[in-house]
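I am sending you the entry underneath: sequence plus fold tokens. Let me know what the token row says about the fold:
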Amino acid sequence: MKKVKLGEVLSLKKGKKATVLAEQTTLSQRYIQIDDLRNNNNLKFTESLNMTEALPDDILIAWDGANAGTVGYGLSGAVGSTITVLKKNERYKEKIISDYLGVFLESKSQYLRDHSTGATIPHLNKNILLDLQLELLGIEEQENIICILNTIKRLITKRKLQLDELNLLVKSRFNEMFGENKIFESIDNLFDIIDGDRSKNYPKSDELFSEEYCLFLNTKNVTKNGFSFDTKQFITKTKDKLLRKGKLERYDIVLTTRGTVGNVAYYDELIKYKHLRINSGMVILRPKTPNHNWQSKNLWKNLKL
């Protein structure tokens, strides 16, 4: 596979400081700063002249400060002083898709930060950047890579939103019960919130048995009155070992998050099963402080109210 140094592909142009306007005018253009490399939530504008300008085909990279190495692309406007514009040289304009170059640089962000200069304020090292070697793939291969990585990004974003919503759900239950008691406003100060394993190893229907090594919980097992084992399904020891997270430890609390939302159960010594796992519609609340089973028991009692 042919590789090419970025120094052959790109030329660099540093951004400039400008007078920032909160509102767009007939004479202004967008002013791009570091936050704009992540999202378009806070647009800024400038009428300053002789600015370094970025086109949608350019790559932008934060050059200075704690966020050095942050990458943005598909943007156009005047560029701030802490950002450098990477422009493709004429020879490679039709050979390298900007998004492909962008995702490559995103994968090197930490490497560039690790090799930055400056004791107080980090600055990217130009030579380190230009010495990076990019695989010169065909256009179709580049497009496939972009498509796959964009899909992964969307899934990661969706997953983060789901976890945020879950945390809000649990916190809202606390606030319902304890009002403005500050101790309970942030559950993650007291408990770890652990969800189940949703990887490719998640048990399929033909991998669930009436008798086996590990009890795999479903929503019927977690009721408003705690655990119920009228119906049970199990997974093998081999399957249990393949799953990375979601296995109960004594004094854990199980909270349902889908279907019958808000049912809770407490896994103490009275539960005879030694091996239990939650399914994808539940989370585990586990005390951050070891041996604080009283904390779990009190929480469980209050959550049942």
Q: What stands out?
A: The radius of gyration is 26 Å. Residues 91 and 273 are 67 Å apart (CA to CA).
